[in-house]
Design brief:
With 267 residues, this protein is α/β, with parallel strands linked by helices. The chain is built from 10 helices and 7 strands. It has a 7-stranded parallel β-sheet, sandwiched between helices.
């Protein structure tokens, strides 16, 4: 009598809402069990939904701006007693406004979460996957990584960091059995703009944001195919991302200003 095939295991950070929650649902729909991480109470609702989809789900409540919490999450993965087949390092935050006026602690928090915790957790995940000779990693980057972002200067720089890191890591690991994919969504209908205090910008007020479920579906498909970068969302968002990548930085930056400048929603 043959034993049942064990379900693969995936880790998703920032899984309580938005793109992260939709990525977790993609994994659940495709036969994965999950370790999901976030710091807010919405994680409980996400866990209930994912379990309703048939997945075994282990929630870990962590603040990934804290190094000890990153280690606690890594320990939870190790403590599962199961190999990690995929990791979606998705947790991220933004903060809008004029750099001369914005809160320093908020912007250092962006660097800690978007950059430092991504590197920290990737170190733990990559080490185990390389030792096994297999695994998949998805980094949530952004079309904002393709050119500087005025009025969200630190956020844009943090996503440029993530994109560069992901692509360098992909090249390093190309013969290891571990694939690395970067997900580059455009403006998406999540809590991001509220939390980033950008609802008074044209970008934040736009009613043409992408569905996070679509972004996650495209990101998951790209991850499973082993693609390098996935410009996700609508055709317009994909075109915007690719255009930013080939437009001179000074030109692309100037083009973004009318969309991200505080107060631009009413102009």
């Amino acid at each position: 009598m043959s034993l049942p095939v064990a379900r693969p295991l995936a880790l998703v950070t920032g899984a309580s809402s938005g793109i992260g929650r939709e990525l977790a649902k993609q994994f659940a729909e495709n036969g994965f069990d999950l370790i999901v991480a976030a710091e807010d109470v919405e994680l409980d609702d996400a866990v209930e939904e994912l379990r309703g989809m048939g997945a075994t789900v282990a929630p870990v409540s962590v603040d990934l701006t804290k190094r000890d919490d990153v280690e606690r999450l890594a320990a939870a993965v190790d403590g599962s007693g199961r190999p990690l087949d995929a990791a979606a390092l998705n947790a991220g935050v933004g903060h809008g406004g004029r750099f001369a006026e914005t809160d320093l602690e908020a912007e250092l928090g962006i660097v800690e979460l978007n950059c430092a915790s991504t590197v920290h957790l990737a170190k733990r995940v990559v080490h185990a996957m390389v030792a096994r000779g297999e695994g998949r990693i998805l980094f949530t980057s952004s079309v904002a990584s393709q050119a500087p972002e005025p009025f969200q200067a630190v956020y844009g720089a943090s996503k440029a960091f993530v994109q560069s890191f992901a692509m360098a890591l992909r090249e390093e690991l190309k013969d290891s059995g571990v694939s690395v994919t970067a997900l580059l969504p455009g403006p998406t209908d999540t809590e991001f703009f509220d939390r980033a205090e950008m609802t008074d910008t044209k970008l934040g007020a736009s009613d043409k944001k992408d569905d996070p479920a679509l972004v996650a579906r495209q990101g998951f498909a790209g991850l499973m195919k082993g693609e390098a970068s996935v410009f996700a969302g609508s055709l317009a968002s994909k075109a915007m991302g690719r255009l930013s990548a080939i437009t001179p930085a000074n030109v692309a930056t100037a083009m973004k200003r009318p969309m991200t400048e505080p107060g631009s929603a009413g102009s």
